[in-house]
Prior knowledge:
The complex is a heterodimer of chains A (157) and B (656). With 157 residues, chain A is mostly helical.
Amino acid sequence: MVICVSLLVGCGGKEEKKKEKIKLPTKTEKKVEKKVENVPASKTIDLTNKGIGPINSVTLGTQIDKKMVAHGEDVFKKMCTACHRTDKKFIGPAPKNILDRRTPEWVMNMILNPEEMTQKDPLAKALLIEFNGSPMANQGLSEEDARAVLEYFRTLK
Amino acid sequence: MKNLLKSTLAILGALVAFTSCNNSANSGGKSGALASNIAEKVYVAPGEHDEFYAFISGGYSGNLTVYGLPSGRMFKEIPVFSQFPTSGYGYSEETKPMLNTSHGFIPWGDSHHPDISQTNGEIDGRFIFINENNTPRIAKIDLTTFETTEIIEVPNSAGNHSSSFVTENTEYVVAGTRFSVPVPQRDMPISEYKGNFQGALSFISVEPEHGHMDIKFQLLMPGFNYDLSHPGRGKSHGWFFFTTYNTEEANTLLEVNASQNDKDFIAAINWKKIEEYVNNGGGTMMPAEYAHNVYDEVTHTATSTMKKEVRVVNPSDVPGAVYFLPTPKSPHGCDVDPSGEYIVGNGKLSANLTVHSFTKMLDAIENKKFDGEAYGIPILKFEDVLAGSVEQPGLGPLHTEFDGEGNAYTTFFISSEVVKWKLGTWEVIDRKPTYYSVGHLTIPGGNSRKPQGKYMFAMNKITKDRYLPTGPELEHSAQLYDISGDKMELLLDFPTHGEPHYAAAMRADIIKERSKKIYSLAENNHDYAAKSDADTKVVRKGNEVHIYMTTIRSHFSPDNIEGIKVGDKVYFHVTNLEQDFDVPHGFAVLGQNTSELLIMPGQTKSSVWEPTKVGVWPFYCTDFCSALHQEMQGYIRVSPANSNVPLKWSMGENIE
């Protein structure tokens, strides 16, 4: 910490050059990543992986449950908007069209069990890297809340 | 050749040395094996939990520290009577009222005797109370959050020392004055102390559900020094016992003048009788000024209310409620055994340890065997109430605790030892030295009907050579003893913080299960909480600016703020949106004349900043919270007082 602070203070006058120097290595790292995997984790489609956590099976109704959507939207606004925007990448990925890319079980497990997911689930691990190590916070949602958020996500198209 | 010989001899010598070393290790195997056995007794493997919590008062730190036993590891310092920059206690807008008194804001206190709440005479682990000695106050700490949630000032008191001990069902937490003073306080010559000063013993009721404290009555006693106290229990439930010294009523050079009398007193107070008297309208309401500070866990905010009167009771108005038990010589600790029968008066300057009998006391009262009176309070005859004496057990007895197996353990300050003796036969069973000059000692549950035994720890006043030296000032040393056998066994030295005056300890399981992990964000009812990103805003009211800010791994919202001017009073109201265990965030801004904030999940805390310099000033998270903690920062632009820069805020986009 002390070293970082003194570095910053010491380089105050030459900030632009400093920035360029820092950017270079991250660019090369990204190139390496791209070689290994072309599609970023946030765009990867995997409709079989159910993730790791308390949810083994979710049945989606044919009709969207509006009452549940209202509850889910409320929970999302209170607990998730610090890091997520519905339609664009923010601190974390956007949930828009998420069910075209993920199973409902995976989504709920990611909400309910993010620590284990980002340690063990290959997709969640890749997402953590794509989003620069910004952790998915466990906001202590109940399964009912998480299910409602999932229903709300069904409306985001 | 000579060299070769020499080196051979040297090698041989070395071998011999090694061998003899091994031999001695083997032959002296007892001490070696014993030593490792002791190590095992205090070893708590990585990731495992201690069996007991110990709450050790911080003395002049004003706080309370939490330790684990048998490991002697410190887990937490709970701020109580002193400002604590580590968390912002006493600095944040929400907690400043906790340190309000009738003398104004006081940033420091001298904490003394913690005592855990009880139900049916057994410690229940709900609350822990602790007294402030200097500006008399009693604090309550909630053991679900380990936070100080209430502080009540004690009027008419001075040197709040014979405190804060609870009755069997936590009906009362009791606070007695060490220094007698004019009641009410007034301008008068010090030399007129004798006969004019009084000693207030305060009975503070504890509301059963939330533990809210209220002074039920103050007993205005003669102008002695009331040193320590303990409740009756079992058969003596309903009584409270206080040691006194300076029954000479000296007002100068007490080390000589307060040691003249052969005996001082233990005051026995039948509080149930006085309670009944008060419930029937007895006593008088007297004008007084004292602060009552309560922290609300839903608004995360403390409020301070100044109370204007207190009920006082003159002991001679309640016949049969107060008696004096003569006790040699300047008794300090006043300890009641688990059965409630024996009251131990630890006469500091006495050769013997005096133990009174509750049964004999009742009998003497019934048969009116009085030996005069003091200020209208009957004095019982020493011989009539004496249960027995422990003959010459050591020098300078201070405090006694009990193991529930019929044994008592007394500390001796001058001879620096703990002596184990048997209740009833008064024989000394064992003694062990302490390093050095022991004050208090604690056995888990030792002040209750059911002590939990197993360990005893002594809190020493002097450390000297026990640890690596740290300059002239050393932390005090505590020592843990195994008391499960006939003989005490010293297991461990561990440092304590500040000066521990007493400690309370109990089995960890009950507290552990109830310990809160987070504050519910949904229940957060703070006036300035921003409970989601949509609630964040910056509001100007004249030169006051309120920033409703949120924090979550790993950003503040807003993190760019403009339109602040020199001369503004800027309130950062920071809500931690996390709902996960052990994810606090910190907050500090460059040049701020106060401490950081440490905000627990679901909590809101506020910090005031009055910028004096134009510039763009960073703020950041002070608690390493995630891999992107170093990115957790923001900027606030301060413009000249007369500037027209509009108020703007943002996060995640450019401000313009």
